[in-house]
């Protein structure tokens, strides 16, 4: 009896913790540094930087560091398939 009550008590807390972790992981994946994006795309880091600068890759520069929006890139690639 206590076990079932404990499960019901913890269910919303566990659900919230899982939701927060999934969101955190999604955000971590979203903005990848140029070096990691280059590795994933199979191109050089400089090529990533140039493509972000030209608008060919979705990204941004923050304090001279280039980040690629991998979520948007996934969407764009999905449309091309």
Describe what this molecule looks like in 3D:
The protein is of the alpha+beta class. It has one domain (2-80). 72% of the residues lie in helices and 15% in strands. The protein has four helices and three strands, in the order αβααββα. It has helices spanning 2-30, 34-41, 45-54, 70-80; strands at residues 31-33, 59-62, 65-69. A three-stranded antiparallel beta sheet has the order 1-3-2. Strand 2 (59-62) and strand 3 form a beta hairpin. Helix 2 crosses helix 3. The longest helix has 29 residues, at 2-30. The chain is elongated and about 65 Å long. The model has no long low-confidence stretch (mean pLDDT 88).
Shape: elongated
Residue stretches low in confidence (pLDDT < 50, at least 5 long) are none
Radius of gyration: 19 Å
The amount of helix comes to over 70%
Q: What is the averaged pLDDT score?
A: 88
Counting DSSP H or I runs of 4 or more residues, the number of helices is: 4
Order of helices and strands: HEHHEEH
For the terminal residues, how far apart are their CA atoms? 53 Å
| Beta-strand content | 5-15%
Which class do the helix and strand fractions yield? alpha+beta
The figure for the number of domains is 1
Strand order of the largest sheet: 1-3-2
Number of strands: 3
Described by strand count, sense and barrel closure, the largest sheet is: 3 strands, antiparallel
Provide a quick synopsis of the model.
The protein is an alpha+beta fold and 81 residues long.
Write the layout of secondary structure elements.
Layout: H1 2-30, E1 31-33, H2 34-41, H3 45-54, E2 59-62, E3 65-69, H4 70-80
Antiparallel strand pairs: 1-3, 2-3
Helix pairs in contact: 2-3
């Amino acid at each position: 009896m206590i076990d079932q009550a404990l499960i019901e008590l913890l269910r919303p807390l566990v659900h919230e913790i899982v939701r927060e972790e999934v969101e955190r992981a999604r955000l971590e994946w979203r903005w990848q540094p140029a070096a990691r994006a280059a590795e994933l795309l199979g191109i050089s880091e400089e090529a990533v930087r140039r493509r972000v600068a030209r608008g060919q890759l979705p990204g941004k520069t923050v304090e001279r560091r280039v980040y690629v929006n991998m979520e948007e890139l996934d969407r764009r690639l999905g449309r091309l398939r």
